[in-house]
Amino acid sequence: AMVKHAVGHQNQKEELIALPECL
User: Which domain of life is it from (predicted)?
Assistant: First the structure.
């Protein structure tokens, strides 16, 4: 989960999707 969040961190828009995706 944390790894995916880090990848989304690169893109703000992706970060929002990464948070729920991790859950």
Answer: Eukaryota
| Distance, CA of 19 to CA of 16 (rounded, Å) | 6
For residue 20, what pLDDT is reported? 60
Contact 18, 8 (CB under 8 A): yes
Round to the nearest angstrom and report the end-to-end CA distance of the chain.
8
What is the rounded radius of gyration, in angstroms, for the C-alpha atoms of the chain?
A: 7
Q: What is the pLDDT of residues 1-23, one digit of tens each?
A: 556 655 655 555 555 565 665 55
